[in-house]
TrEMBL record:
Residues 23-276 form the AB hydrolase-1 domain. One of its GO terms (molecular function) is triacylglycerol lipase activity. GO terms for biological process: glycerolipid catabolic process. InterPro entries: AB_hydrolase, AB_hydrolase_1, AB_hydrolase_fold. This is AB hydrolase-1 domain-containing protein. SUPFAM superfamilies: alpha/beta-Hydrolases.
Amino acid sequence: MTNIKIATGVELHYQDEGERCAPVIILIMGLGAQMTVWPDELYFGLVNKGFRVIRFDNRDCGLSSHLDSLGSPNVIRTILSKKLPIHAHIPYTLDDMASDVIGLMKSLKIKRAHLVGASMGGMIAQIVAAKHRKKVVSLTSIMSTSAYPQFTFSNLKVMLQLAKARPKPNCRQSAVQYNIKLNKLIGSPAYPQDEMTLHQLAKQNIERAHSPEGFKRQLTAVIAGRFRQHALSQIKAPTLVIHGTDDPIFPITSGLQTATRIRKSKLKLVNGMGHDFPPVLMQKIAKWIAKHAFKAEQKRYKKSLHKVI
């Protein structure tokens, strides 16, 4: 694991495993989640299937640059600015975060890659695939959405419960308990994780890095994001959409809409899966992603041969 500074000056912490000459998969994580949230079973599962796999901390998260100089945005004001003629301070956008992915690829001299994005990472991957079509061999969007974040009964319930459990400032133990509460609320009903496992993961996460202000800046970027329906029509890369039937953050309709809006995409619905990565499903999901990426590689290879002939 190491850090690299991209052209914008943002420093990204990343892990790069697998043969240098193998097809590249870049994993893009979601809101406030560090790269370590990608389960090792999935990460190394893809490496063992013959890919060079890169996971990284987004800006304002984990061990990457924390952009405190950009200030602390008002999340409520940002939400209201979508409906009312008021100005909200937006430190950066999802397009800026998509540029981080391109910057990482350029710095590592990667011409093209398969993108796998989870939640907010799926939104970022969609933007990259739409704006930089020649650089994206395939796209996999997991538990994400292609529309503005919509308030539903399930995600409002989660937000209200989290608001009640808001951690005390500068208290790591409180932050750990909040993280456990969060993962219980968004977890998969059919694949619950035990309290000890959740506590261990939360502790590791908070000890590695903890940035509430960075979370707010990322959240503001998500809320201020544009509707991507037109952008999605520009995506030419073979696309796989994976979505849980019991996702409390982005309901199943989000996965269905994304699959509908991206031409010739394939949809995999996972019964009982919420907004997390149940360990028992990682082998299956790694298999889906690898199969999808290999097919896209074969398609690209055949096209290149046809051009030569």
